[in-house]
Write a structure and sequence with these properties.
By secondary structure, this protein is mainly alpha-helical. Helix content is about 35%, strand content about 5%.
């Protein structure tokens, strides 16, 4: 797990590694691009930092329920 941000101090309290955008100035799409650039796993979950109360059970369901699908967009 990691956080894509160009302001790592803002997210330091979570104790999760932070990584910067690869291409600056293109907003959310830049964050997704950077996540895909840095990811090492076959499957990852991308979520905006302003999504309140996301539950790990939802993430587990979305990733685990669709093993033969390239992408799931709820």
């Amino acid at each position: 797990m990691f956080i894509i941000t160009n302001d790592p101090e803002k997210y330091a309290r979570f104790g999760v590694p932070t990584l910067p955008d690869v291409i600056l100035g293109i907003g959310t799409l830049g964050g997704i691009h950077a996540g895909l650039h840095y990811l090492k796993d076959r499957a990852d979950f991308f979520v905006a930092s302003d999504i309140p109360f996301i539950q790990s059970a939802v993430i587990d369901y979305l990733i685990g329920s669709f093993p033969d699908i390239d992408a799931v967009v709820p």
